[in-house]
Design a protein that fits this description.
Blueprint: E1 10-17, E2 20-25, E3 29-34, E4 48-54, E5 57-63, H1 64-67, E6 80-88, E7 91-99, E8 101-108, E9 113-114, E10 128-134, E11 137-142, H2 150-160, H3 178-191, H4 195-210
Parallel strand pairs: 2-11, 5-7
Antiparallel strand pairs: 1-2, 1-8, 3-6, 4-5, 6-7, 9-10, 10-11
Length: 211
């Protein structure tokens, strides 16, 4: 059974949390960053790790593990921050989503997406757009505009509207090995891919190189 709200082929960025695969529509993604130190903000929910300075703008960083009731994990070489836009009362708010790792970017047609399960996922189904079937496994597709409650979005909005913090900009995931360099360059020239897709490809290649 297809998901009525998804009527066209879309491109998704996949990431992992506690060995579970999740996906978000790349139209909500700005870029993927290597993990950087975050500055704590007092009196904020536990899942909010703090804020980073992204080219002069304050961006709140959310630990998606804690938001989904999972155990907090140590930072590894694969830990990354996915910079996304979420909508609050018709206005876009930029947040950084802390993930265990970024996997890949791919297209998925509506026929390969099933409605979210009512039980068994361990997550509240209202912010799950559907379950995508990809490479013989299911991927949880998130509706990022429904992940956070109204009160949580207010916290995030207030944090992002705060004064610029004097910390270095985080490093963008741009290091790639020679085997992937031509592949990424070709996509940039021929397809003019957007920044989130390029960053994800480069992040995947860099991770493979370190391993």
């Amino acid at each position: 059974m297809a998901v009525p709200a998804i009527k066209e082929t879309r491109t998704y960025l996949t990431f992992t949390l506690e060995e579970e695969d999740f996906a978000v529509d790349v139209t909500n993604v700005r870029e993927v960053l290597d993990f950087t130190n975050v500055t704590r903000v007092p009196r904020t929910p536990d899942f909010m790790k703090g804020v980073i300075n992204l080219r002069g703008s304050v961006v709140p960083v959310v630990d998606m593990r804690l938001k989904f009731g999972l155990q907090e994990a140590d930072v590894t070489v694969d830990t990354c921050i996915i910079v996304m836009e979420v909508e609050m009362e018709g206005e876009a708010t930029v947040i950084g989503a802390l993930a265990d790792s970024v996997k890949e970017v791919f297209e998925l047609d509506p026929g390969r997406i099933e409605p979210p399960p009512r039980i068994g996922s361990g997550l509240e189904s209202e912010f799950i757009s559907g379950m995508g079937k990809y490479n013989d496994s299911f991927i949880i597709i998130l509706d990022v505009n429904k992940v956070f409650s109204e009160d949580e979005l207010i916290y995030l909005k207030e944090a992002s509207d705060g004064p610029t913090i004097e910390i270095p900009d985080p490093v963008k995931a741009t290091e790639i090995d020679e085997s992937k360099e031509n592949e990424v360059q070709s996509e940039v020239e021929n397809e003019e891919i957007n920044q989130p897709k390029k960053a994800a490809l480069e992040k995947t290649a860099r991770t493979k190189k370190r391993r």
